[in-house]
Structure formats: structure tokens, C-alpha cells
Amino acid sequence: MFAEWLMARLERLFRRFRRAPAGRVTAIFVADAAGTPMRACEQTLALVDQGLAEDRYALGRGFWRLTDGCQVTLILAEDLRRAERRHGLPLDAGQHRRNLVVSGLVGVELRGRSLRIGEALLAWHRVRPPCGYLDRVAGAGMAKALGRHGGYCLRVREGGVIRVGDDVTVV
């Protein structure tokens, strides 16, 4: 009886201190303005309440409607691979038009959570569904390929450097 109680108590205690779900940054993309090609970079600087340095969103040139702006966009690498398999479209060179590609967070609920990515802290803002404009810029079928897995908009709460290979921790 005591052993069962002790085990249950220890399990609850360990659950509180388990590491949060972690992923990894697999790619970073920025663009100078809406519609310009995405370019890969090894690192970037997240700017509080602005976005990524040198990216269209931080520069105020990244959206077609005022209600459309995001500071930073993120998409899961696993969702990109699924879209590539299903639709045969290349998605590894930024054609998806998202800033950060992250692996290892499949099945993790991000809504309402914050992510520690490298030195920066980013907060979930909203789902980022693909729009018809994506087909015009990246090629016909891109929006359909991403479907309901078009990524997320994030807000920068604490600035800092983000590098390819950095851990991503849900906090």
C-alpha cells in the first residue's frame, strides 16, 4: 500500500520536471518583400515585436493586406515531407514561404504556447493557412499541397539569434 502510494507520488513529481517537448530548427528562410524569392540562411536575429531581421515581415513588406501580417512563420518539417510525398512538389528550398522549418514537434499542441528557439522566445499567434497567392508565387498546387498544414504565425517576445540546428522547446 505504501509502495503504491509512493510510486504514484513520485510519478506525479517526475511528470512536473520532465523536459518539455523539443524539436530542432532544420531550415531558416527570409525574403526581402512579398513575392520575392525566399533565401536560406544559417542564422537570423529575432527582433522583439517585429520579426526576423532582413525578412519582409520585420521590414513591413511581407503581406498583401494589413490583416495578413505575421512576425514570424513556422512550419513543421514532417508536414512538408507529407505534402511532398502526396503532391510531388519540391518544398525544400523555401517554396512554402515560411520562415522557420522545425522537426520533432509532430502531435504537440502549439496553440497558446510559447517556443524557445535558440536565444529567442516566440509566442503562438495563429494558424497560417496557405492562400491562393502562394500558387502564383510558388507554383500551381502549392496551397493544396500544404492544405491544413500551412504552418503558424508567431510573435517575438524575446529577441535573440536563431540558428539552423538550434533546439526548439515548448514552454
Automatic annotation (TrEMBL):
Superkingdom per UniProt: Bacteria
Extract the PROSITE patterns matched here: MOSC
Residues annotated as domain MOSC: 38-171
Q: Which is an annotated Pfam family here?
A: MOSC
Name of the molecule in the record: MOSC domain-containing protein
Q: Which species expresses this protein natively?
A: Thiocapsa rosea
Can you name one GO molecular function term for this protein?
A: catalytic activity
